[in-house]
Amino acid sequence: MLLKKYVYFKRISQILNKKGQSLVEYLLLMLVISTLSMIFLSTMNDRIAKVWVGMISIVAEQDISTDDLR
Length: 70
Known about the structure:
- By secondary structure, the protein is mainly alpha-helical.
- Helix content is 91%, strand content 0%.
- The chain has 2 helices and no strands.
């Protein structure tokens, strides 16, 4: 009888530990994905901004007439 209760409580504790472990793994996974996404977005945003600023400065420095466009 005592052995059956011990086995029962051991199984319950394993289930509870797995659920808690799953929650921690999920939270860590979300943290890693969010961090990588923010790093990627900020890096890409800086690069895109530099490209646009470069293009605008090239266009702004040139004197383009309608004859040059033909």
